[in-house]
Design a protein that fits this description.
single chain; about 110 residues; alpha+beta; 2 helices; 5 strands; about 15% helix
Length: about 110
């Protein structure tokens, strides 16, 4: 977990950090006054691409999260994941965010489904 004392909350739309030992990325976001946490697989691309959150061309990684949503009558083994390319550096990403709609839609897709 990042050092919370060193964060400039003025530029923090979300809090994100990577656990390189497990290749997981964690995101915490304040959605309608409630802190929401998402955990997902973090796959570095070692390339530049467009971040789905801040819409900037930068070094990105594929972030994939397993959804909690299951269709009615689905098998107990049902599994659905959604993913997108996200900035490797969440601090820089936060400074470049101009609209949170895409991030909120992604979080909604993970928690609630389509």
């Amino acid at each position: 977990m990042p050092d919370l004392k060193g964060i400039t909350y003025r530029f923090a739309t979300y809090l994100g950090w990577t656990d390189i030992a497990t290749n997981k990325l964690f995101i915490v976001y304040d959605l309608n006054g409630k802190l929401i946490g998402i955990e997902g697989k973090y796959t570095p691309t070692n390339k530049k691409g467009v971040c789905f959150v801040c819409n900037r061309h930068t070094e990105v990684a594929l972030f994939t999260a397993v959804t909690k949503w299951k269709p009615e009558g689905a098998s107990p083994d049902y599994y659905r994941a959604i993913g997108n390319y996200l900035c490797v550096n969440s601090e820089v990403c936060n400074k470049n965010i101009t609209d949170v709609e895409v991030l909120e839609k992604f979080i909604h897709g993970v928690l609630v489904g389509p």
